[in-house]
Amino acid sequence: MFTTGFPVKVIFDTSIYIPFINDGIAYPTGELNVAIGKQMLYMSSVVIEELYAGAFDIQSIKLLDTLHKTFESLNRLLIPEAADWQTAGKVIAKIGKKYGFEGIFLSKITNDVLIAVSARRIGAIVITNNVKDFLRIKEFVDFKYYEGHA
User: Fold this and answer.
1) What is the pTM of this model?
2) Distance between CA atoms of 23 and 133, rounded to whole angstroms?
3) Residues linked to residue 91 through DSSP beta bridges, in sequence order
4) What is the pLDDT tens value at each position of the chain, 150 positions in all?
5) Which CATH superfamily is domain 8-147 in?
6) Cα separations (Å) of 57 from 18, 47, 53, 72?
């Protein structure tokens, strides 16, 4: 779908990593590589935070430490900038206004909005299994996403 002669910048959402990390594998492979083609994989600092928040065993934490160090050493750790936070706040307010969600949902979608906004800044595609929330975000943020099916 997104195949080109050039590497495509890609950010895997947390929903893509979780099944692999649960199996002790750091990097999702297979169907995603075929669908996207050549990839230049970035790690969102928001995703790594979410992964750490759900890591309760030593093996998972060590795997995440290695994953984080790898992306950091490659200068491919994507950290939301001040403008990304500002845009995220505006988008979250619009989502709340349109859908009337409670504060709890809006705080949960904050991370996904930050991922989308920072991915857009570098021209990356977000790969996710959490299409429902990213579809809502897409109403207010022009970014690219792809459903992962990992």
Assistant:
1) 0.85
2) 25
3) none
4) 455 556 789 999 998 888 877 776 656 655 455 455 567 889 999 999 999 999 998 988 998 999 899 999 999 999 999 999 999 999 999 998 888 777 667 778 999 999 999 999 999 999 999 899 999 999 999 999 988 764
5) 5'-nuclease (3.40.50.1010)
6) 14, 18, 11, 23
Return the structure tokens found at 14. 């947390």
Kindly state the DSSP code that residue 37 receives in the 8-state scheme. -
Specify whether the CB–CB gap between 120 and 91 falls below 8 A. Answer: no
The structure tokens 């505006």 sit at 90
Q: Pull the structure tokens for residue 40.
A: 């230049």
**Residue 60 is encoded by which pair of tokens?**
């998972």
Cα separation of 75 and 42, whole Å? 9
Which position has the token pair 């959490």?
130
Contacts 24+ apart (CB under 8 A), 106-115: 109/133, 109/136, 109/137, 111/14, 111/46, 111/49, 111/50, 112/13, 112/137, 113/88, 113/137, 113/141, 114/44, 114/46, 114/80, 114/84, 114/85, 114/88, 115/11, 115/13, 115/44, 115/46, 115/47
